[in-house]
Design brief:
Length: 437
């Protein structure tokens, strides 16, 4: 393992150990397990690349390029559903049967701990990848207990999209740095004739992983956290209550429209592009789509982005998103799988991916590239958002944890319970999850 990786691991060892102990119910004692032995990665021949729906055709192009250069080690594409929760279920079904059908798999960053702890994916030789040239938070999200289990294919962090034309019309010189400022700016803008029938703000609030992301961002943007450094739930703090109450009150006050409870990424994107929202929390993929000059967007040239706003004096913070490439522990041709990952995660390939589908690169240098900044003006803000982003809780039972968050948060946003009731219930539920077997 590289020195840089060891430094990162040492800095986070207390948190990692605490979370592992809590997640697995080990109680006290030595939580420092031996570093897993990296596989020899033998076996060459055909493999599969498994990922979610290829909406851009970019995966097919990468595979075609590989197959031309490696006719004896052809890669075939297995396409899973677009929704990440459905992908996870199919992965688990495959792993539990120890099937060799899946070779290289695309994994959401939040699955790293679960898949690694279950020994479903292989520990990787970090010295064979250029992780020292990647942004630190992105590499850390591919590690479990200091060991690399995935190679960042692309990363992600939330941005605040805002209507520059409406802010200017209202005499507002800069986008909001806090939710309180955002509400104040909205009240001013909504008085304009140009803002008739518009709503202030929206994120992703349907009962799926996007709600967990937005819940986490509200908590941490107020200075709180879902799980503390001791590996225990931390939703009974003033910061957590302040953050989630701010989100719930957004629905109550009408600043967040009622229909936003149905918003996933694409529904919200369409609303912003139609000119229905002043502010929108969204991933960077929306930028080129909303700025398209082909008539598909009513806001092209009328918006910009900034980092997420804070709450109550704290700095705004995104949840860290992104996808890694991992090797299934059950695939036979691991040498081919490893080489394929090397092929598709080079700096040049990630540059191409940015142009092809807007995927945020893991390599730090690409955020300083003048031509890329010219073509993708949001890169400086995105880099800042990534560096200040926080991972969702790194617990083995993450699947159960996110379901609990979605259920309690959704009930509060729809008025079935108060923000305080939701947090109290969630505190109890998570205590059982992170300390259970």
């Amino acid at each position: 393992m590289k020195t840089r990786a060891r430094t990162r691991a040492a800095a986070g060892v207390t948190l990692a150990a605490a979370l592992l102990a809590a997640a697995c119910g080990t109680g006290g004692g030595d939580t420092q397990a031996a570093e897993p032995k990296v596989s020899d990665f033998t076996g060459r021949g055909p493999i599969t690349f498994v990922s979610g729906k290829d909406v851009t055709g970019n995966s097919a192009q990468l595979i075609e390029a590989w197959n031309k250069e490696h006719p004896g080690q052809k890669v075939s594409f297995v396409e899973l559903p677009e929704e990440s929760d459905a992908q996870r279920q199919q992965y688990i079904q495959n792993f539990e049967t120890k099937s060799d059908t899946y070779g290289v798999i695309a994994t959401d960053v939040v699955w790293t701990s679960e898949f690694a702890a279950q020994q479903w994916i292989e520990p990787l030789p970090e010295d064979q990848f250029q992780t020292d040239k990647m942004l630190d938070p992105v590499v850390e999200a591919a590690e479990y207990r200091g060991q690399l289990y995935g190679v960042p294919n692309y990363t992600d962090a939330g941005l605040l999209y805002y209507r520059t034309d409406l802010l200017k019309k209202a005499g507002i010189k800069a986008p909001p740095e806090t939710w309180e400022e955002m509400w104040a700016q909205c009240r001013k803008i909504l008085k304009l004739p140009e803002a008739k029938d518009m709503s202030c703000y929206a994120g992703q609030y349907e009962k799926y992983e996007g709600l967990t992301v937005n819940f986490a961002e509200a908590i941490q943007s107020a200075g709180g956290s879902i799980v503390g450094n001791d590996g225990k739930p931390a939703l009974d703090t003033p910061e957590a209550k302040k953050g989630f109450s701010t989100l719930v009150n957004g629905f109550k006050s009408g600043m967040i429209p009622k229909e936003a409870i149905t918003y996933e990424e694409e529904i919200g994107r369409q609303a912003f592009q139609k000119g229905e929202l002043i502010f929108h929390r969204q991933w960077p993929y929306q930028y080129p789509l909303a700025n398209a000059r082909d008539g598909s967007s009513a806001v092209a040239g009328k918006f910009d982005v900034t980092t997420l706003p804070g709450i109550g004096g704290a700095e705004g913070s995104s949840s860290l998103g992104g996808w890694n490439l991992a090797v299934s522990s059950f695939t036979k041709n691991k040498a081919t799988a490893l080489d394929f990952i090397k092929f598709v995660t080079t700096e040049e390939m990630e540059r191409r991916n940015l142009y092809a589908n807007g995927f945020a690169p893991a390599y730090a240098s690409l955020y300083e590239d003048k031509q890329l900044i010219k073509d993708f003006p949001y890169l400086p803000e995105l880099k800042q958002s990534i560096l200040s982003a926080q991972p969702r809780p790194r617990v083995v039972r993450y699947g159960d944890l996110t379901v609990a968050i979605q259920e309690e948060a959704y009930d509060a946003l729809t008025g079935e319970q108060s923000a305080e009731e939701a947090l109290n219930s969630l505190q109890s539920r998570l205590a059982g999850l992170v300390s259970g077997p």
